[in-house]
């Protein structure tokens, strides 16, 4: 559809989509998608617009007012905002952007996690993983293809995943991310062994204090908490899907004694391993 908005170039296109009930229950889904050429003097202010907005600035510059902050956003940057809240954007020079309003069952959780790290406007050195999916959504509407809601959801998940994976140096250096990822891989392979934080820190070359700090910054857990969670989750699986005794499961998952295992298990799940084994529906 051609835009009829004032100070939006006539060649600008946008599309509207209403998701099925199935999509509303299961998926992320686009609501509006477009490519707009905004002219000098364009201004928009809204108290609410029930969706989340991803916008990529391809040319020009806009000013974003959101949650008490005013910031200029230039070409090459993304804008990601919760349009359920009051927001405004405008420009004295104009800008061009590819954009998508979307929503879905996990939209808010994704949004809150991403903006807590990146903010509402951010630059990605390699925007292609996001732009390719934004373009795929737009081109699906533009070409008149059949809208496959699972595929639209995948495109949006791919976009959000790219945001999740991107970590600017100001948040946590890439070398630190690599250390955490390698440590997690090592824990998952060796959790049944007698591994501890000092051993893990030694492998990375960091002091235990520094290692714990960067691990928790990336995962939300200390290394010890992560190890115990892996052991407990493995024990849960074995309790339900094997005939191993509680004692055998205890030692096969890396706990030092049956009493330590049972105590840790009950603290996290509120029941003993034996009680968990006999419960239904978990």
TrEMBL record:
This is Transcriptional regulator, AraC family. One of its GO terms (molecular function) is DNA-binding transcription factor activity. Gene3D superfamilies: Homeodomain-like, Jelly Rolls. Keywords: DNA-binding, Transcription, Transcription regulation. It comes from the Bacteria. Pfam families: AraC_binding (PF02311), HTH_18 (PF12833). InterPro entries: AraC-bd, Homeodomain-like_sf, HTH-like, HTH_AraC, HTH_AraC-typ_CS, RmlC-like_jellyroll, Tscrpt_reg_AraC-type_HTH. The keyword Transcription regulation applies. Residues 181-279 form the HTH araC/xylS-type domain.
């Amino acid at each position: 559809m051609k835009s009829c908005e004032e100070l939006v170039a006539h060649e600008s296109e946008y599309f509207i989509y209403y998701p099925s009930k199935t999509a509303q229950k299961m998926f992320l889904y686009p609501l509006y998608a477009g490519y707009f050429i905004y002219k000098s003097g364009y201004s928009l202010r809204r108290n609410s617009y029930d969706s989340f907005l991803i916008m990529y600035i391809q040319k020009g510059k806009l000013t974003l007012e959101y949650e008490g902050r005013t910031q200029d956003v230039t070409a090459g940057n993304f804008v990601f905002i919760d349009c359920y809240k009051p927001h405004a954007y405008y420009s004295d020079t104009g800008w061009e952007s590819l954009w998508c309003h979307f929503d879905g069952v996990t939209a808010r959780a994704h949004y809150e996690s991403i903006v807590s790290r990146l903010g509402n406007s951010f630059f990605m050195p390699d925007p292609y993983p996001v732009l390719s999916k934004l373009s795929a959504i737009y081109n699906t509407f533009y070409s008149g293809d059949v809208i496959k809601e699972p595929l639209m959801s995948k495109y949006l998940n791919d976009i959000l995943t790219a945001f999740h994976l991107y970590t600017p140096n100001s948040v946590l250096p890439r070398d630190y991310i690599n250390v955490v990822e390698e440590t997690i891989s090592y824990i998952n392979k060796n959790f049944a062994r007698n591994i501890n934080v000092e051993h893990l820190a030694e492998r990375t070359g960091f002091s235990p204090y520094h290692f714990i700090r960067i691990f928790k910054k990336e995962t939300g857990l200390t290394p010890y908490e992560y190890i115990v969670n892996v052991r407990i989750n493995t024990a849960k699986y074995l309790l339900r899907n094997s005939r191993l005794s509680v004692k055998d499961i205890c030692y096969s998952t890396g706990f030092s004694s049956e009493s330590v295992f049972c105590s840790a298990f009950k603290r996290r799940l509120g029941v003993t391993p034996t009680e968990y084994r006999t419960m239904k529906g978990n």
